[in-house]
């Protein structure tokens, strides 16, 4: 990933700072600098069997993480870019055990050391998808307990794992939280517990996104589209979760994995074509349930049918058959594209691009500064002024105003600081976009007009801060005022 402007300036500040502080603080400063050069680290969290590993595979574009019904992710697994495929199991004592990918190209199910002794599985893949993102697959949160499972907590946040592993997992800058049923209050608690447990993660909706997975299970009947049900449910849940996540995106992770990892073969497509040619009654019987699909007499051998169920489940099979009936000559590649579109992933990709792409620089820089601030408070007293001074200097730069702006936007959009709708969207636009025309709602306007409009907005927000606003609103308004003031300067 090309490091953004903010991350780059924090990194060079770290370089200046390192020789001036004690060994203890230097280790932190150097660690922060090296993390700034890495892609955004996203942790995928959620309950047992929510489909986390399936989604990880879809994001990576390869089926590498085991997802079979019985297997569960018991060890934190990190996927990052590397020049060649390679897996290292990192033990709690720090020792590395290299293991080969299995015959199917996946992480082998049996590890060279007991899972309890493993702190981390570090997977490097030569997948271009990973150039911009490090993905961390985490063990499922306990289903009965409202808190995160002890095992997950220990593996993610334990103090006694070696530095490599802690470095790998402790500082995820963003979370994708996966759930499958209506959000229950204990889901919200689990989400908050997860965010709290990781010191480096603020629980702001700025860096968390929820996926409403297995949307296919909401299909009202065989072959019927689940989206008319899933979309409004996800929107409701986004309202319930608005203090914790910036959006709830409904997806069918299984279809995304199958499409993105290229798991649908020409043979699968032929089997589906054969099923599409069956008479209506026979097909309806077969597709009534997973059990009937594999047990009903008919063409296509049972192993092949099981494979289809694994790759597509009943909704995906119905979906594919409907398309093959409408267009009997549909090629495998075209079917895969249709499945991808039906997985909800296109919307997920654009949301990811928006929040983790556009905001990545700010998220990383913000993370780095808070890490340095923490080091200033907890580290050796002699380094305090050096560290604080450096952070303050950076924060005073105009481009750094994006940080408080995003914080203000998070407070406003979560309803913590209520504002009229028009003002709320103005704050969000100012915080999230660079394009002055978009921010000011004047997409075609010439520069001079944009500048006048920015000055007008700045005075409007100042007037609001000084009269009629609550103290919390006034704090937000002052930040927004300065934001528009800086924008006007940029346009001047
Ligand atoms: N129908 C359907 N099944 C899915 C979907 N996503 C995942 N699954 C299935 O759900 C099961 C669990 O998926 P995993 O990806 O292993 O879930 P996980 O959250 O990683 O599970 P643990 O690591 O054990 O906590 C697998 O059998 C998947 O094939 C989906 O969108 N639709
Ligand atoms: Mg898993």
Please explain how this structure is put together:
The protein is of the alpha/beta class and 492 residues long. The protein has three domains: 5-252 and 345-360, P-loop containing nucleotide triphosphate hydrolases (Rossmann fold, 3-Layer(aba) Sandwich); 257-342, no CATH class; 397-491, no CATH class. The protein has 21 helices and nine strands. It has helices at 5-17, 23-36, 52-60, 150-157, 163-170, 185-197, 227-240, 253-260, 266-276, 280-286, 290-295, 302-326, 332-342, 345-358, 360-378, 384-395, 402-413, 421-432, 436-440, 447-466, 471-491, and strands at residues 40-46, 77-81, 86-91, 96-99, 118-125, 133-137, 174-179, 208-212, 248-250. A nine-stranded mixed sheet has the order 4-3-5-2-6-1-7-8-9, with helices on both faces. Helix 7 links the parallel strand 8 and strand 9 (248-250). Helix 3 (52-60) runs parallel beside helix 8 (253-260), helix 8 (253-260) packs across helix 12 and helix 17 crosses helix 21. The longest helix is centred in the middle third of the chain and has 25 residues, at 302-326. The chain is globular, with a radius of gyration of 25 Å. The structure holds guanosine-5'-triphosphate and magnesium ion (MG). Magnesium ion binds at residues 52-53, 72-73, 137.
In terms of quaternary structure, the protein is single chain
Q: Give the beta-strand count.
A: 9
- List the strand order in the largest sheet: 4-3-5-2-6-1-7-8-9
Order of helices and strands: HHEHEEEEEHHEHEHEHHHHHHHHHHHHHH
User: How many helical elements?
Assistant: 21
What share of the residues does DSSP label as strand, in percent? 5-15%
Rg, nearest Å = 25 Å
Largest sheet entry: 9 strands, mixed
CATH architecture of the largest domain: 3-Layer(aba) Sandwich
